[in-house]
Write a structure and sequence with these properties.
The protein has about 375 residues and is α/β, with parallel strands linked by helices. It has two domains: about 140 residues, Spore Coat Polysaccharide Biosynthesis Protein SpsA, Chain A; about 240 residues, UDP N-Acetylglucosamine Acyltransferase, domain 1, CATH 2.160.10.10. The protein is built from six helices and 39 strands. The chain has a nine-stranded parallel beta sheet, with helices on one face. It has a seven-stranded mixed beta sheet with strand order 5-4-1-6-9-8-10. The longest helix is centred in the middle third of the chain and has 20 residues. The radius of gyration is 20 Å and the shape is globular. This is Glucose-1-phosphate thymidylyltransferase.
């Protein structure tokens, strides 16, 4: 059995982890969990997540166990790990480390552990260095997305460059797709409309529409997005609208987001210093020269919105006021000082999701209201 667990760093992936576990984040062409399941196609999976996510994760992954005790032999893998080699499920008890970060561990003897967050202090096991990348912050996914796209597409297509197109993908003859800097994959049912430009490496997910957009290298678009304007080195989780002019660069955009016409983010400081980002009252030096914005699920921006470098917009935040958006906008914010009314949340979510023929399940709606009750950023993350 393989057990994928969220460790103590889950809060560093805020705001994208308010409505999903870390392993359901898109990175390259697939989510982190999809990558692991492709490495272990014959193994059963047990998913250890935060308590408030358990019901939703079970709803979305019905073929997996969720928060169930395990019986050795079992291989534990961090939810934020990308394995570059397969670690056997059976073998001696070991702690697997990649560049001083824990990628996972293997148990062959029964333990009294229950589902929860696992850190190095709980594991008194011999260490072994493995080939893997373990991510501690969400901006590291943005940083490494171009190379991950090249790695995945080279592995699946067995060559380093080219345009790979599902039979049901549609590309207008006036569109330009360039693969000199990396491969491009057009997944099932996607559409590249007239006068669009796509520069690889890039992944265009199922049903996504590229509508006259200028897509620069390093982008991943999940299912059923609508993309216009200019996008560079950014990840769109899926079901998001950025259908008009405006620029989004070096950013991570959640699901069910609607970016109004001319919404533009800055991804470079005027002094060319590395971008600092505010997370749980901490100002963190990301070490990245370019970093745009982290946009949670169901965020909405008005036309002409200007988003500053290193901004964080929490789940269901709505910005419509004059002037630049603040660098940090909390969950369910309504402008600078207001907040959504509880009775409007589910009605709005249902209307938005119906536009993509999706009906939110009971667990999803329950979690939305739970996040509303938990409050703003610091209150949500204080449970770490």
């Amino acid at each position: 059995m393989v057990c994928v667990y969220e460790d103590e760093n889950w809060g560093n992936f805020y705001p994208l982890i308010q409505l999903r576990p870390v392993f359901d984040l898109l990175f390259g062409c697939r989510t982190l969990l999809e990558k692991l399941r492709r490495r272990y196609p014959k193994e059963s999976f047990n998913l250890w997540v935060r308590d408030e996510l358990a019901e939703l994760v079970q709803e979305q992954h019905p073929d997996c166990l969720v928060n169930q005790p395990v019986q050795p032999p079992v291989l534990f893998i961090s939810a934020s790990a990308v394995l570059l080699e397969k670690m056997p499920v059976s073998g001696p008890e070991e702690l697997f480390v990649a560049e001083k970060r824990i990628a996972g561990f293997r148990l062959s003897q029964p333990r009294s552990w229950k589902p929860g967050f696992l850190g190095r202090v709980q594991l008194n096991l011999p260490e072994r260095e493995v080939k893997a990348r373990v991510y501690a912050y969400i901006w590291e996914l943005i940083r490494d997305n171009p190379e991950e796209l090249k790695r995945e597409l080279k592995t699946s297509a067995r060559r380093s460059a080219g345009v790979f197109r599902n039979r049901s993908a549609r590309v207008h003859r006036s569109a330009v797709i360039l693969s000199e800097q990396g491969p491009v994959y057009l997944d099932a049912g996607c559409e590249v409309r007239p006068f669009s430009l796509i520069e690889g490496p890039c992944y265009v997910g199922p049903g996504t529409v590229i509508d006259g957009a200028r897509v620069r290298p390093g982008c991943s678009f999940g299912p059923r997005c609508k993309i216009g304007g200019e996008v560079e080195c950014s990840i769109f989780q899926g079901y998001a609208n950025k259908h008009h002019d405006g620029f989004i660069g070096h950013s991570y955009v959640g699901a069910w987001v609607n970016l109004g016409a001319l919404t533009t983010c800055s991804d470079l400081k005027n002094n060319y210093h590395p971008v600092r980002l505010q997370l749980k009252s901490r100002s963190i030096d990301t070490g990245m020269l370019k970093l745009g914005c982290l946009v949670g699920d169901h965020v909405k921006t008005a036309i002409g919105t200007m988003i500053p470098t290193g901004a964080v917009l929490g789940t269901f935040a709505s910005w419509f006021e004059p002037g630049p958006a603040p660098k940090q906008l909390g969950t369910f914010a309504w402008g600078r000082t207001g907040r959504w009314r509880r009775e409007e949340i589910l009605d709005c979510a249902r209307r938005v999701m119906a536009r993509r023929d999706v009906v939110p399940g009971p667990a999803y709606e329950k979690l939305l209201l739970k996040i509303f009750e938990l409050g703003m950023t610091d209150e949500f993350l204080s449970r770490r």
